[in-house]
Amino acid sequence: MTQEEKHVELLKAAYQKWHDSKAGSIDYWLGLMTDDIKFRSLGAGAAEIEFTRTSTCKEEVKRYFAGLTSDWEMIHYLIDEYIAQGERVVAGVDTRLIVYARRPSEARHPVTHVVGEREF
């Protein structure tokens, strides 16, 4: 098995746990990360979603997950496609969430995740 295939298999298992547990596999994800991770979100710390600011250690990523799961409920988190090249894996994500921050509303968010070997 190539390094690329190993990375894809690792992420497939992690995303499946994330989906099956409805975002309850935070400790599993933290266990995959290096201590000096650079974790970014599309929200980039914007107003009302400050928890999405860039995280540079596991403790900050843990706070990100706490913020995410406190106001949002996952309906599903499915990976449409994995693309691996060198030390990077790109995952095409289809996620559906209920956001409780103001009034409950359901949202579907297509997302692309890029994971580098340094994060494993």
What does this structure look like?
The chain is an alpha+beta fold and 120 residues long. The chain has one domain: Nuclear Transport Factor 2, Chain: A (Roll). Helices cover 32% and strands 32% of the residues. The protein has three helices and three strands, in the order αααβββ. It has helices at residues 3-20, 26-32, 58-71, and strands at residues 72-85, 88-99, 105-116. The chain has a three-stranded antiparallel β-sheet. The longest helix has 18 residues, at 3-20. The chain is globular, with a radius of gyration of 14 Å.
Which CATH top level class fits? Alpha Beta
The chain-level structural class is alpha+beta
Second rung of CATH, namely the architecture: Roll
Looking at CATH, which topology would you report?
Answer: Nuclear Transport Factor 2, Chain: A
Task: Name the features.
32% helix, three-stranded antiparallel sheet, alpha+beta, 3 helices, Nuclear Transport Factor 2, Chain: A, 120 residues
